[in-house]
Amino acid sequence: MDKQVLNLNADKIEMVLAAHKAPARVWGGRLTPRTVQFHLAPAANTKLARLETLTEEVALALGTASARLTRLNGTLSLEVPRSDSRFVALADLDARIQRDDHLRRIMCTAGTAILGLDSEGVPLLLRLSSPDVAHCLIAGTTGSGKTELARTILASLTTHQKTRDLQLALFDPKVRGLAPFQSVPHLLFPLVADPDHTLAKMRYLVSEMERRDQLLIERPRIVVVVDELADLLQVCGSELEAMLTRLVQRGRSAGISVIACTQKPTARAVGGLMKANFPVRLVGRVTSTDDARVAAGIGGTGAEKLVGRGDFLLIAGGEIIRFQAAQTEFKVQGSKFDALNCTILNFEPRTLNGNLKSQAR
Protein backbone atom coordinates (compact mmCIF):
# COMPACT_ATOMS: atom_id res chain seq x y z
CA MET A 1 0.00 0.00 0.00
CA ASP A 2 1.38 3.41 -0.97
CA LYS A 3 3.02 5.31 1.89
CA GLN A 4 1.64 8.64 0.73
CA VAL A 5 -1.92 7.28 0.87
CA LEU A 6 -1.33 6.01 4.41
CA ASN A 7 0.03 9.41 5.51
CA LEU A 8 -2.92 11.18 3.87
CA ASN A 9 -5.39 8.91 5.63
CA ALA A 10 -3.60 9.48 8.94
CA ASP A 11 -4.01 13.25 8.45
CA LYS A 12 -7.72 12.77 7.67
CA ILE A 13 -8.22 10.78 10.87
CA GLU A 14 -6.57 13.49 12.96
CA MET A 15 -8.66 16.19 11.25
CA VAL A 16 -11.96 14.36 11.82
CA LEU A 17 -11.20 13.71 15.49
CA ALA A 18 -10.06 17.30 16.05
CA ALA A 19 -13.18 18.66 14.34
CA HIS A 20 -15.34 16.71 16.78
CA LYS A 21 -13.29 17.89 19.78
CA ALA A 22 -11.68 14.51 20.43
CA PRO A 23 -8.07 15.20 19.42
CA ALA A 24 -5.66 12.30 18.93
CA ARG A 25 -2.38 11.83 17.11
CA VAL A 26 -1.63 8.99 14.67
CA TRP A 27 1.88 7.90 15.63
CA GLY A 28 2.26 4.73 13.56
CA GLY A 29 0.43 1.71 12.29
CA ARG A 30 0.48 -1.80 10.89
CA LEU A 31 -0.64 -3.43 7.66
CA THR A 32 -2.38 -6.81 7.82
CA PRO A 33 -3.64 -8.83 4.83
CA ARG A 34 -7.11 -7.30 5.10
CA THR A 35 -6.86 -4.16 7.26
CA VAL A 36 -4.81 -1.07 8.09
CA GLN A 37 -4.29 -0.25 11.77
CA PHE A 38 -3.60 3.38 12.63
CA HIS A 39 -2.10 3.64 16.14
CA LEU A 40 -3.64 6.49 18.12
CA ALA A 41 -2.33 8.60 21.00
CA PRO A 42 -5.38 10.45 22.38
CA ALA A 43 -5.05 13.80 24.09
CA ALA A 44 -5.29 13.74 27.87
CA ASN A 45 -8.86 15.06 27.81
CA THR A 46 -10.10 12.69 25.06
CA LYS A 47 -12.23 9.82 26.32
CA LEU A 48 -12.11 6.43 24.59
CA ALA A 49 -15.90 6.26 24.60
CA ARG A 50 -15.93 9.48 22.56
CA LEU A 51 -13.51 8.00 20.01
CA GLU A 52 -15.71 4.93 19.73
CA THR A 53 -18.71 7.07 18.75
CA LEU A 54 -16.71 8.71 15.95
CA THR A 55 -15.72 5.57 14.04
CA GLU A 56 -18.48 6.05 11.46
CA GLU A 57 -17.36 9.64 10.81
CA VAL A 58 -13.80 8.40 10.28
CA ALA A 59 -14.98 5.65 7.93
CA LEU A 60 -16.93 8.22 5.89
CA ALA A 61 -13.90 10.52 5.64
CA LEU A 62 -11.65 7.65 4.51
CA GLY A 63 -14.21 6.24 2.07
CA THR A 64 -14.26 2.81 3.73
CA ALA A 65 -17.19 0.60 4.71
CA SER A 66 -16.36 0.63 8.41
CA ALA A 67 -13.83 1.56 11.07
CA ARG A 68 -13.20 -0.21 14.35
CA LEU A 69 -11.44 0.94 17.53
CA THR A 70 -9.25 -1.72 19.15
CA ARG A 71 -6.88 -1.88 22.10
CA LEU A 72 -4.15 -4.48 22.40
CA ASN A 73 -1.30 -4.55 24.92
CA GLY A 74 -1.70 -0.87 25.66
CA THR A 75 -1.81 0.17 22.00
CA LEU A 76 -4.96 1.93 20.82
CA SER A 77 -5.65 1.50 17.11
CA LEU A 78 -8.23 2.53 14.57
CA GLU A 79 -8.69 -0.35 12.13
CA VAL A 80 -10.09 0.09 8.61
CA PRO A 81 -10.37 -2.35 5.68
CA ARG A 82 -7.66 -2.25 3.01
CA SER A 83 -8.64 -1.26 -0.50
CA ASP A 84 -6.05 -3.73 -1.83
CA SER A 85 -6.83 -6.60 0.54
CA ARG A 86 -5.18 -9.96 -0.08
CA PHE A 87 -5.65 -13.48 1.17
CA VAL A 88 -3.28 -15.94 2.81
CA ALA A 89 -2.26 -19.23 1.22
CA LEU A 90 -2.22 -22.26 3.50
CA ALA A 91 0.54 -23.84 1.44
CA ASP A 92 2.85 -20.85 2.03
CA LEU A 93 2.02 -20.63 5.70
CA ASP A 94 2.44 -24.36 6.19
CA ALA A 95 5.84 -24.16 4.47
CA ARG A 96 6.93 -21.56 7.02
CA ILE A 97 5.87 -23.80 9.88
CA GLN A 98 7.54 -26.87 8.39
CA ARG A 99 10.89 -25.05 8.33
CA ASP A 100 10.83 -24.98 12.13
CA ASP A 101 11.59 -28.44 13.60
CA HIS A 102 9.79 -27.75 16.86
CA LEU A 103 6.61 -26.52 15.17
CA ARG A 104 6.72 -29.35 12.66
CA ARG A 105 6.56 -31.81 15.56
CA ILE A 106 3.69 -29.87 17.13
CA MET A 107 1.70 -30.12 13.90
CA CYS A 108 1.91 -33.92 14.14
CA THR A 109 0.21 -33.83 17.56
CA ALA A 110 -3.38 -35.05 17.30
CA GLY A 111 -5.85 -32.16 17.22
CA THR A 112 -3.38 -29.42 16.24
CA ALA A 113 -4.57 -27.31 13.31
CA ILE A 114 -3.48 -24.25 11.40
CA LEU A 115 -6.06 -21.47 11.32
CA GLY A 116 -4.65 -18.13 10.15
CA LEU A 117 -2.51 -15.03 10.60
CA ASP A 118 -3.07 -12.67 13.51
CA SER A 119 -2.93 -8.90 13.23
CA GLU A 120 0.86 -8.98 13.67
CA GLY A 121 1.31 -11.36 10.75
CA VAL A 122 2.07 -14.31 13.03
CA PRO A 123 0.68 -17.78 12.18
CA LEU A 124 -1.76 -19.16 14.74
CA LEU A 125 -2.26 -22.79 15.74
CA LEU A 126 -5.27 -24.29 17.48
CA ARG A 127 -4.52 -27.30 19.70
CA LEU A 128 -7.73 -29.11 20.56
CA SER A 129 -5.91 -31.46 22.94
CA SER A 130 -5.21 -28.56 25.30
CA PRO A 131 -7.48 -28.62 28.39
CA ASP A 132 -8.14 -24.91 27.86
CA VAL A 133 -9.44 -25.50 24.33
CA ALA A 134 -11.12 -28.92 23.80
CA HIS A 135 -14.12 -27.56 21.85
CA CYS A 136 -14.56 -24.71 19.39
CA LEU A 137 -17.48 -22.75 17.98
CA ILE A 138 -17.23 -21.09 14.54
CA ALA A 139 -19.92 -18.48 13.96
CA GLY A 140 -20.60 -16.07 11.13
CA THR A 141 -23.17 -15.12 8.57
CA THR A 142 -23.11 -16.08 4.89
CA GLY A 143 -19.93 -14.71 3.32
CA SER A 144 -18.00 -14.54 6.57
CA GLY A 145 -15.75 -17.49 5.68
CA LYS A 146 -17.12 -19.78 8.38
CA THR A 147 -17.16 -22.97 6.28
CA GLU A 148 -13.81 -22.10 4.71
CA LEU A 149 -12.28 -21.88 8.18
CA ALA A 150 -13.69 -25.30 9.09
CA ARG A 151 -12.18 -26.70 5.89
CA THR A 152 -8.83 -25.17 6.75
CA ILE A 153 -8.86 -26.82 10.15
CA LEU A 154 -9.73 -30.19 8.61
CA ALA A 155 -7.14 -29.80 5.85
CA SER A 156 -4.31 -29.18 8.30
CA LEU A 157 -5.47 -31.96 10.62
CA THR A 158 -5.64 -34.61 7.91
CA THR A 159 -2.45 -33.45 6.18
CA HIS A 160 -0.17 -33.74 9.21
CA GLN A 161 -1.75 -36.35 11.49
CA LYS A 162 -2.01 -40.10 10.99
CA THR A 163 -5.20 -42.11 11.16
CA ARG A 164 -3.96 -43.99 14.22
CA ASP A 165 -3.82 -40.65 16.08
CA LEU A 166 -6.86 -38.85 14.68
CA GLN A 167 -10.38 -39.80 13.59
CA LEU A 168 -13.09 -37.51 12.20
CA ALA A 169 -16.86 -37.56 12.55
CA LEU A 170 -18.40 -35.14 10.03
CA PHE A 171 -22.01 -33.89 10.07
CA ASP A 172 -23.15 -31.65 7.22
CA PRO A 173 -26.88 -31.40 6.40
CA LYS A 174 -26.15 -29.53 3.17
CA VAL A 175 -23.24 -31.84 2.23
CA ARG A 176 -21.53 -29.11 0.20
CA GLY A 177 -19.47 -27.59 2.99
CA LEU A 178 -17.52 -30.66 4.12
CA ALA A 179 -17.87 -32.66 0.90
CA PRO A 180 -14.13 -32.46 0.02
CA PHE A 181 -13.39 -34.68 3.03
CA GLN A 182 -15.76 -37.53 2.19
CA SER A 183 -12.88 -39.77 1.07
CA VAL A 184 -10.15 -39.03 3.60
CA PRO A 185 -8.96 -42.12 5.50
CA HIS A 186 -9.46 -40.42 8.88
CA LEU A 187 -13.26 -40.77 8.79
CA LEU A 188 -14.75 -42.75 11.67
CA PHE A 189 -17.86 -43.25 9.47
CA PRO A 190 -19.05 -41.72 6.18
CA LEU A 191 -20.13 -38.08 6.19
CA VAL A 192 -23.62 -37.77 7.73
CA ALA A 193 -26.33 -35.55 6.22
CA ASP A 194 -29.67 -37.24 6.99
CA PRO A 195 -31.35 -36.17 10.30
CA ASP A 196 -32.13 -39.75 11.34
CA HIS A 197 -28.58 -40.86 10.65
CA THR A 198 -27.34 -37.80 12.54
CA LEU A 199 -29.18 -38.88 15.69
CA ALA A 200 -27.99 -42.48 15.32
CA LYS A 201 -24.34 -41.49 14.91
CA MET A 202 -24.55 -39.03 17.80
CA ARG A 203 -25.87 -41.80 20.01
CA TYR A 204 -22.90 -43.90 18.97
CA LEU A 205 -20.48 -41.08 19.80
CA VAL A 206 -22.03 -40.60 23.23
CA SER A 207 -21.77 -44.32 23.97
CA GLU A 208 -18.16 -44.32 22.72
CA MET A 209 -17.41 -41.39 25.00
CA GLU A 210 -18.84 -43.27 27.96
CA ARG A 211 -16.82 -46.39 27.07
CA ARG A 212 -13.60 -44.40 26.75
CA ASP A 213 -14.34 -42.59 29.99
CA GLN A 214 -14.71 -45.86 31.89
CA LEU A 215 -11.56 -47.36 30.35
CA LEU A 216 -9.56 -44.10 30.62
CA ILE A 217 -8.94 -44.07 26.86
CA GLU A 218 -8.02 -40.82 25.07
CA ARG A 219 -6.60 -42.06 21.75
CA PRO A 220 -7.11 -41.84 18.92
CA ARG A 221 -8.51 -38.33 19.31
CA ILE A 222 -11.94 -37.99 17.77
CA VAL A 223 -12.81 -34.58 16.28
CA VAL A 224 -16.54 -34.10 15.68
CA VAL A 225 -17.30 -31.37 13.13
CA VAL A 226 -20.89 -30.14 12.81
CA ASP A 227 -21.73 -27.72 10.00
CA GLU A 228 -24.98 -25.71 10.07
CA LEU A 229 -25.52 -26.38 13.78
CA ALA A 230 -28.65 -24.22 14.13
CA ASP A 231 -30.36 -25.95 11.21
CA LEU A 232 -29.57 -29.40 12.60
CA LEU A 233 -30.90 -28.46 16.02
CA GLN A 234 -34.09 -27.18 14.43
CA VAL A 235 -34.63 -30.42 12.51
CA CYS A 236 -33.42 -32.95 15.08
CA GLY A 237 -34.76 -31.17 18.15
CA SER A 238 -33.91 -31.46 21.81
CA GLU A 239 -32.48 -34.99 21.55
CA LEU A 240 -29.58 -33.78 19.41
CA GLU A 241 -29.00 -30.78 21.69
CA ALA A 242 -28.87 -33.06 24.72
CA MET A 243 -26.33 -35.39 23.11
CA LEU A 244 -24.13 -32.55 21.86
CA THR A 245 -24.24 -30.99 25.32
CA ARG A 246 -23.03 -34.26 26.84
CA LEU A 247 -20.22 -34.47 24.30
CA VAL A 248 -18.93 -30.98 24.99
CA GLN A 249 -19.30 -31.38 28.76
CA ARG A 250 -17.59 -34.77 29.11
CA GLY A 251 -15.78 -35.36 25.83
CA ARG A 252 -12.48 -33.71 26.73
CA SER A 253 -11.40 -36.41 29.20
CA ALA A 254 -12.31 -39.09 26.63
CA GLY A 255 -10.26 -37.51 23.84
CA ILE A 256 -13.29 -36.17 21.95
CA SER A 257 -13.46 -32.58 20.66
CA VAL A 258 -16.37 -30.81 19.00
CA ILE A 259 -16.11 -28.10 16.34
CA ALA A 260 -19.52 -26.59 15.62
CA CYS A 261 -20.31 -24.10 12.85
CA THR A 262 -23.38 -21.90 12.68
CA GLN A 263 -24.53 -18.90 10.67
CA LYS A 264 -27.36 -18.22 13.15
CA PRO A 265 -25.65 -17.50 16.47
CA THR A 266 -28.85 -16.33 18.12
CA ALA A 267 -29.74 -17.15 21.71
CA ARG A 268 -32.96 -18.82 20.56
CA ALA A 269 -31.24 -21.06 18.01
CA VAL A 270 -28.13 -22.26 19.83
CA GLY A 271 -27.85 -20.25 23.02
CA GLY A 272 -28.57 -23.11 25.43
CA LEU A 273 -26.00 -25.42 23.90
CA MET A 274 -23.31 -22.77 23.48
CA LYS A 275 -23.44 -21.27 26.94
CA ALA A 276 -20.27 -22.15 28.86
CA ASN A 277 -19.65 -25.23 26.69
CA PHE A 278 -17.35 -23.79 24.01
CA PRO A 279 -14.27 -22.18 25.59
CA VAL A 280 -12.96 -21.07 22.18
CA ARG A 281 -15.08 -18.96 19.81
CA LEU A 282 -14.03 -18.08 16.26
CA VAL A 283 -16.41 -15.32 15.23
CA GLY A 284 -16.71 -13.89 11.74
CA ARG A 285 -19.01 -11.14 10.54
CA VAL A 286 -22.50 -11.28 12.07
CA THR A 287 -25.59 -9.21 11.41
CA SER A 288 -26.11 -7.47 14.75
CA THR A 289 -24.55 -6.61 18.09
CA ASP A 290 -26.90 -9.13 19.75
CA ASP A 291 -25.66 -11.95 17.52
CA ALA A 292 -22.07 -10.83 18.16
CA ARG A 293 -22.61 -11.02 21.92
CA VAL A 294 -24.15 -14.51 21.77
CA ALA A 295 -21.51 -15.85 19.37
CA ALA A 296 -18.56 -14.41 21.29
CA GLY A 297 -19.94 -15.01 24.77
CA ILE A 298 -19.03 -11.42 25.70
CA GLY A 299 -20.15 -8.00 24.54
CA GLY A 300 -18.27 -5.22 22.82
CA THR A 301 -16.21 -7.34 20.40
CA GLY A 302 -17.33 -5.43 17.30
CA ALA A 303 -17.86 -8.64 15.32
CA GLU A 304 -20.72 -6.96 13.47
CA LYS A 305 -18.12 -4.59 11.93
CA LEU A 306 -15.83 -7.29 10.53
CA VAL A 307 -15.35 -7.15 6.76
CA GLY A 308 -16.18 -10.81 6.06
CA ARG A 309 -14.42 -13.28 3.75
CA GLY A 310 -12.17 -14.73 6.44
CA ASP A 311 -11.92 -11.75 8.79
CA PHE A 312 -12.33 -13.36 12.24
CA LEU A 313 -12.04 -12.79 15.95
CA LEU A 314 -10.71 -15.43 18.34
CA ILE A 315 -12.29 -15.14 21.78
CA ALA A 316 -10.91 -17.33 24.56
CA GLY A 317 -9.96 -16.85 28.19
CA GLY A 318 -10.94 -13.19 28.08
CA GLU A 319 -8.54 -12.55 25.20
CA ILE A 320 -9.61 -11.27 21.78
CA ILE A 321 -7.35 -11.84 18.77
CA ARG A 322 -8.21 -10.65 15.28
CA PHE A 323 -6.95 -12.90 12.50
CA GLN A 324 -7.31 -13.58 8.80
CA ALA A 325 -8.65 -17.04 8.04
CA ALA A 326 -8.28 -18.75 4.70
CA GLN A 327 -9.96 -19.57 1.47
CA THR A 328 -9.62 -23.23 0.60
CA GLU A 329 -9.66 -25.03 -2.71
CA PHE A 330 -9.50 -28.77 -3.12
CA LYS A 331 -8.67 -31.27 -5.83
CA VAL A 332 -10.23 -34.58 -4.93
CA GLN A 333 -8.50 -37.61 -6.41
CA GLY A 334 -9.82 -40.91 -5.08
CA SER A 335 -9.00 -40.97 -1.38
CA LYS A 336 -6.57 -38.06 -1.54
CA PHE A 337 -7.03 -34.32 -1.70
CA ASP A 338 -4.68 -31.37 -2.05
CA ALA A 339 -5.28 -28.20 -0.04
CA LEU A 340 -4.27 -25.49 -2.48
CA ASN A 341 -5.24 -22.20 -0.96
CA CYS A 342 -5.96 -21.68 2.76
CA THR A 343 -5.30 -19.52 5.86
CA ILE A 344 -4.63 -20.22 9.57
CA LEU A 345 -4.79 -19.55 13.65
CA ASN A 346 -3.62 -20.67 17.15
CA PHE A 347 -4.75 -20.06 20.72
CA GLU A 348 -3.75 -20.68 24.33
CA PRO A 349 -0.66 -19.38 26.16
CA ARG A 350 1.58 -18.52 23.24
CA THR A 351 5.36 -18.39 23.14
CA LEU A 352 7.54 -16.67 20.59
CA ASN A 353 9.38 -19.27 18.52
CA GLY A 354 11.48 -17.59 15.86
CA ASN A 355 8.88 -15.47 14.13
CA LEU A 356 6.04 -17.91 14.81
CA LYS A 357 3.74 -18.15 17.81
CA SER A 358 2.95 -21.65 18.98
CA GLN A 359 0.93 -23.36 21.68
CA ALA A 360 3.74 -25.61 22.81
CA ARG A 361 4.06 -26.25 26.50
What does this protein look like?
This protein has 361 residues and is α+β, with helices and mostly antiparallel strands. The protein has two domains: 3-81, 2-Layer Sandwich (Threonyl-tRNA Synthetase, Chain A, domain 2); 90-358, Rossmann fold. It has helices at residues 3-19, 48-53, 55-62, 90-98, 101-107, 146-160, 195-215, 229-236, 238-250, 267-274, 289-296; strands at residues 24-31, 35-42, 68-72, 75-81, 112-118, 123-127, 136-139, 166-171, 221-226, 256-262, 280-283, 311-316, 319-324, 330-333, 336-339, 351-353, 356-358. The chain is elongated, with a radius of gyration of 21 Å.
CATH class of the largest domain: Alpha Beta
> What distance separates the N and C termini?
38 Å
SS strand fraction: 25-35%
Domains, number: 2
**CATH superfamily (homologous) name of the largest domain:** P-loop containing nucleotide triphosphate hydrolases
Tell me how many strands there are.
Answer: 17
Number of helices: 11
Strand order of the largest sheet: 6-5-13-12-11-7-10-9-8
Question: Over the alpha carbons, how many angstroms does the gyration radius reach?
Answer: 21 Å
CATH T-level fold name of the largest domain: Rossmann fold
- The secondary-structure element order is HEEHHEEHHEEEHEHEHHEHEHEEEEEE
Helix content: 25-40%
| Computed structural class | alpha+beta
Second-tier CATH architecture of the largest domain: 3-Layer(aba) Sandwich
Mean pLDDT across all amino acids: 83
Biggest pleated-sheet summary: 9 strands, mixed
The geometry reads as elongated
